């Protein structure tokens, strides 16, 4: 991590990329592990890059104490230049030479959780993006790939488990109660994929035999008390291995594959070759302590990190600007995996809808704000700030468009060619697209490849304007499509994108017109498409399956949207029709003058009732269809945002749904009970999601009527629940409705789960994210900061309370008195002093301050200016607030 403290940040530009002046072929590391003073002996085989001018060898280092430097076994001169070790008197020839560096570091003082650190008595590492330089001096860049052998030595009683990448080749005892383990990774890798773990852990092991007939050992290491929560993660890993070999022909390439979980981790997980290190949040799952969402996230993230074994490890990034090469591609792969695991078409659609909701509520605002950047950024001051929804989620949509343009089989063929060409190399996004195009020479992608690369080069969310004209004389329907993209910082003008638009036509009775389904590839600013044999004006269903990450401006009437909501054969667009109806009602109420009254009309309510009562729709789909558009999504449709007005409108809509559909909610709750044992499959999870929504609505209606029946039933369900999903939904329903039973339930919940760290995170988050009534949430959050179970230095706990309040509770955060912004200001500065990564993510809560109405805008601006003026300030936070304040 490059956390400069002098107020200046060196800007790194993609156009300045230059291959390294030296290559490192082999690395032999020996660690004598001690929390206060760990000794690291680094022996490297180094050679000059013959394609670069002769120059000194400059190695990156941070917070290291240098003790010795040897070249070919002899002492040599060196100098320290800032954060680099500079060696000038190197052998003259081009033959490889041996470089030995001996350093020490203090893992127990490493609060940044980057490099080598200690958490609860166990050693862990996190090296992506630039953490390896906190372990030893090195060429800390992803295009320097070497083979590693690692020897770990430590006290055997305190650290009985010693792990690193690759295969265990030797282990034994040493004098003085110490022991050692030697690991060798047969695959070349960049240093960001290095990992070690040493501690007192237990292991769940599972031998497997792959489809190709090779045997492997899978292991998950956790603390002893958590072993019973690792079964689902192991099943997810086995499913991911089988899926990747079946879908893409990519086998596990190591004798063993290991996962270790820790609660002190800045990221969700890390794909270190053969030794994945995970945040416990994405490994531990038990019905008593984890919700359906937790189970689904474990499956997805375990798969994601395993898939990196090929898309990220075997083929890695040339430089950090190419981050989406591995992340966008691997997110796409884990999305495809999760859809396949879901099974039914309806369940697959639910996964797709959930992914698009993330894109619209997080990535679209990023594309429209000060941190807007292309999927492949052009420059950065701190690379950790660019682990963003644009790089990950939008990057995945770009990969999905490639599959759409070449077909599923064509994409598999292209990925095979990609590995044939680049296995063991550090490459670019261009190389991926080139391989997919070359494997499908007759596809639209191959024909439009240079233009398609604009998805990697241009920031912003394209807009596609739609109009249609029916000609009864010729029985044709002409669809006109026009694309544009608004300016973003540094990119005032945008060239046309390649936008695949999946389309179909319906008549006004909801029947799909034969032969109307097609893929329109929009690549000009404007195009027209003619549909033949259309007898009457049709209803166009466009962007089916969300075939491109764009904003569609399609002026369908309410009646036409109601037809699609009732009949569209594409589940995504069926959901989308309902969302557009709800969005229209919300925006009309937000823009209206005076008090907020019932925003929903009778036709919309009846359509939603029909969805809820539909005999064949999946329960999870129904829950999504009746979920209101997010506060953030509504705000993005407005030129000026009054957060309290949006909150009032959404609350009025929720209340109206609760009362108007009261009998339907009772039916939904009773008809979707799961009487059998807990199963985390999509169908059972969908039924629980719908019953949870019904409870929320019934408690909300009871709040207004004063009827104690449903709050009482909800409290009883909370106490009697046999799984965390049902228990947490009942608790959430009481808290959301503001019922007096909520405080009693919160106290019982804490008492029962006070020793379960991940469950306590839910307890903190639920209170921080509760509906704000008269400004009561901020005082509660401030009080919870003093709670004995709150630990600011634990990233999960900080995110659960502070992150939820600032990022996920806009009505409570955007207070008219500015107190929410003052709270944000103080916490950003407090956390930045010890963990700049977590602080920078919190800092982004005010990315969109310029859209706020007064008095919010001025108060947010003042808070940002205070943070920007503070000294010292990390590069991480400085880059975020500087971009937010820029004109």
Automatic annotation (TrEMBL):
<dbReference type="GO" id="GO:0016285">
    <property type="term" value="F:alanyl aminopeptidase activity"/>
</dbReference>
<dbReference type="InterPro" id="IPR012779">
    <property type="entry name" value="Peptidase_M1_pepN"/>
</dbReference>
<keyword id="KW-0482">Metalloprotease</keyword>
<feature type="domain" description="Peptidase M1 membrane alanine aminopeptidase">
    <location>
        <begin position="233"/>
        <end position="440"/>
    </location>
</feature>
<dbReference type="InterPro" id="IPR014782">
    <property type="entry name" value="Peptidase_M1_dom"/>
</dbReference>
<keyword id="KW-0862">Zinc</keyword>
<keyword id="KW-0378">Hydrolase</keyword>
<keyword id="KW-0031">Aminopeptidase</keyword>
<keyword id="KW-0645">Protease</keyword>
<feature type="domain" description="Peptidase M1 alanyl aminopeptidase Ig-like fold">
    <location>
        <begin position="460"/>
        <end position="554"/>
    </location>
</feature>
<dbReference type="Pfam" id="PF11940">
    <property type="entry name" value="DUF3458"/>
</dbReference>
<dbReference type="GO" id="GO:0008270">
    <property type="term" value="F:zinc ion binding"/>
</dbReference>
<dbReference type="InterPro" id="IPR024601">
    <property type="entry name" value="Peptidase_M1_pepN_C"/>
</dbReference>
<dbReference type="InterPro" id="IPR038438">
    <property type="entry name" value="PepN_Ig-like_sf"/>
</dbReference>
<dbReference type="Pfam" id="PF17432">
    <property type="entry name" value="DUF3458_C"/>
</dbReference>
<dbReference type="InterPro" id="IPR037144">
    <property type="entry name" value="Peptidase_M1_pepN_C_sf"/>
</dbReference>
<feature type="domain" description="Aminopeptidase N-like N-terminal">
    <location>
        <begin position="28"/>
        <end position="193"/>
    </location>
</feature>
<protein>
    <recommendedName>
        <fullName>Aminopeptidase N</fullName>
        <ecNumber>3.4.11.2</ecNumber>
    </recommendedName>
</protein>
<dbReference type="InterPro" id="IPR027268">
    <property type="entry name" value="Peptidase_M4/M1_CTD_sf"/>
</dbReference>
<dbReference type="InterPro" id="IPR042097">
    <property type="entry name" value="Aminopeptidase_N-like_N_sf"/>
</dbReference>
<dbReference type="Pfam" id="PF01433">
    <property type="entry name" value="Peptidase_M1"/>
</dbReference>
<dbReference type="Pfam" id="PF17900">
    <property type="entry name" value="Peptidase_M1_N"/>
</dbReference>
<feature type="domain" description="Peptidase M1 alanyl aminopeptidase C-terminal">
    <location>
        <begin position="558"/>
        <end position="886"/>
    </location>
</feature>
<dbReference type="InterPro" id="IPR035414">
    <property type="entry name" value="Peptidase_M1_pepN_Ig-like"/>
</dbReference>
<comment type="similarity">
    <text>Belongs to the peptidase M1 family.</text>
</comment>
<dbReference type="GO" id="GO:0008237">
    <property type="term" value="F:metallopeptidase activity"/>
</dbReference>
<dbReference type="InterPro" id="IPR001930">
    <property type="entry name" value="Peptidase_M1"/>
</dbReference>
<keyword id="KW-0479">Metal-binding</keyword>
<comment type="function">
    <text>Aminopeptidase N is involved in the degradation of intracellular peptides generated by protein breakdown during normal growth as well as in response to nutrient starvation.</text>
</comment>
<dbReference type="InterPro" id="IPR045357">
    <property type="entry name" value="Aminopeptidase_N-like_N"/>
</dbReference>
<dbReference type="GO" id="GO:0006508">
    <property type="term" value="P:proteolysis"/>
</dbReference>
């Amino acid at each position: 991590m490059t956390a400069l403290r002098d107020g200046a940040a060196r800007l790194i530009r993609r156009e300045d990329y230059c291959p390294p002046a030296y290559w490192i072929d082999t690395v032999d590391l020996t660690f004598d592990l001690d929390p206060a003073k760990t000794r690291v002996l680094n022996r490297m085989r180094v050679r000059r890059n013959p394609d670069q001018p002769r120059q000194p060898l400059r190695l990156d280092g941070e917070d290291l104490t240098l003790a010795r430097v040897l070249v070919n076994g002899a002492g040599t001169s060196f100098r320290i230049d800032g954060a680099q070790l500079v060696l000038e008197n190197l052998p003259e020839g081009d033959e490889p030479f041996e470089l030995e560096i001996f350093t020490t570091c203090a893992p127990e003082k490493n609060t940044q959780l980057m490099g080598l650190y200690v958490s609860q008595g166990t050693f862990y590492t996190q090296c992506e993006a630039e953490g390896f330089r906190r372990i030893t001096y090195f060429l800390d860049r992803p295009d320097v790939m070497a083979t590693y052998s690692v020897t770990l030595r430590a006290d055997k009683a305190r650290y009985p488990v010693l792990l690193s990448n690759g295969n265990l080749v030797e282990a034994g005892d040493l004098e003085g109660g110490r022991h050692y383990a030697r690991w060798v990774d047969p695959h070349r890798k960049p240093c960001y994929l290095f990992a070690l773990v040493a501690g007192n852990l237990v292991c769940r092991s599972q031998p497997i035999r792959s489809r190709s007939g090779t045997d492997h050992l899978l292991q998950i290491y956790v603390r002893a008390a958590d072993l019973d929560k690792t079964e689902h993660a192991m099943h997810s890993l086995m499913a991911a291995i089988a899926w990747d070999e079946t879908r893409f022909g990519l086998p596990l390439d190591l004798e063993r594959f290991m996962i270790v979980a820790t609660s002190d981790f800045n990221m969700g997980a890390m794909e270190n070759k053969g030794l994945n290190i995970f945040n416990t949040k994405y490994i531990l799952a038990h019905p008593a302590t984890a919700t359906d969402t937790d189970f689904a996230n474990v499956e997805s993230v375990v798969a994601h990190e395993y898939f990196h074994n090929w898309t990220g490890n075997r083929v890695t990034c040339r430089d950090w600007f190419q981050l989406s090469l591995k992340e966008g591609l691997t997110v796409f792969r884990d999305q495809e995996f999760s859809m396949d695991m879901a099974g039914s078409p309806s369940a697959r659609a639910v996964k797709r809808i959930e992914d698009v909701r993330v894109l619209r509520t997080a990535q679209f605002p990023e594309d429209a704000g000060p941190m807007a950047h292309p999927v492949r950024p052009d420059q950065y001051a701190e690379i950790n700030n660019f682990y963003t929804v644009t790089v990950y989620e939008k990057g995945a949509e770009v990969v999905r468009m490639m599959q759409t343009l070449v077909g599923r089989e064509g994409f598999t063929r292209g990925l095979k060619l990609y590995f044939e060409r680049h296995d063991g190399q550090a490459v670019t996004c261009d190389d991926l697209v080139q391989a997919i195009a070359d494997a499908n020479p007759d596809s639209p992608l191959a024909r439009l490849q240079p233009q398609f690369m604009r998805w990697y080069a241009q920031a912003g969310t394209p807009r596609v304007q739609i109009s249609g004209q029916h000609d009864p004389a010729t029985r044709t329907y002409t669809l006109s499509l026009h694309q544009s993209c608004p300016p973003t910082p540094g990119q005032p003008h945008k060239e046309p994108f390649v936008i695949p638009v999946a389309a179909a036509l319906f008549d006004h009775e909801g029947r799909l017109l034969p032969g109307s389904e097609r893929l329109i590839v929009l690549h000009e600013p404007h195009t027209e498409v003619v549909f033949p044999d259309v007898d009457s004006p049709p209803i166009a269903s466009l962007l089916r399956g969300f075939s491109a990450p764009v904003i569609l401006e399609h002026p369908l009437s309410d009646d036409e949207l109601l037809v699609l909501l009732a009949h569209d054969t594409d589940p995504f667009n069926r959901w989308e029709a309902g969302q557009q109806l709800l969005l229209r009602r919300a925006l009309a109420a937000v823009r209206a003058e005076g008090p907020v009254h019932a925003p929903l009309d009778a036709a919309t309510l009846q359509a939603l009732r029909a969805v809820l009562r539909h005999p064949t729709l999946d329960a999870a789909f129904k829950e999504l269809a009746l979920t209101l558009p997010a506060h953030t999504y509504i705000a993005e449709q407005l030129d000026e945002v009054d957060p309290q007005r949006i909150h009032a409108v959404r609350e009025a809509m929720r209340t109206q749904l609760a009362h108007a559909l009261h009998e339907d909610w009772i039916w939904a709750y009773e008809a979707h009970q799961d009487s059998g044992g807990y199963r985390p499959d999509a169908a059972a999870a969908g039924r629980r999601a719908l019953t949870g929504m019904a409870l929320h609505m019934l408690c909300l209606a009871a709040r207004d009527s004063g009827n104690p029946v449903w709050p009482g039933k909800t409290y009883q369900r909370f106490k009697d629940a046999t799984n965390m999903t049902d228990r947490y939904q009942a608790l959430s329903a009481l808290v959301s409705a503001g019922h007096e039973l909520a405080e009693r339930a919160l106290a019982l919940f804490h008492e029962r789960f006070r020793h379960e760290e991940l469950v306590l995170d839910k307890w903190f988050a639920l209170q921080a994210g509760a509906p704000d009534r008269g400004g009561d949430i901020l005082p509660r959050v401030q009080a919870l900061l003093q709670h004995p179970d709150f630990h600011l230095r634990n990233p999960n706990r900080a995110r659960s309370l502070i992150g939820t309040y600032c990022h996920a509770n806009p009505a409570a955060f955007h207070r008219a008195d500015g107190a929410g912004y003052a709270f944000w200001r103080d916490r950003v500065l407090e956390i930045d002093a010890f963990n700049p990564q977590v602080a920078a993510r919190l800092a982004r809560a005010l990315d969109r301050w310029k859209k706020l109405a007064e008095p919010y805008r001025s108060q947010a601006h003042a808070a940002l200016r205070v943070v920007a003026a503070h000294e010292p300030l990390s590069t991480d936070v400085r880059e975020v607030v500087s971009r937010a304040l820029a004109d």
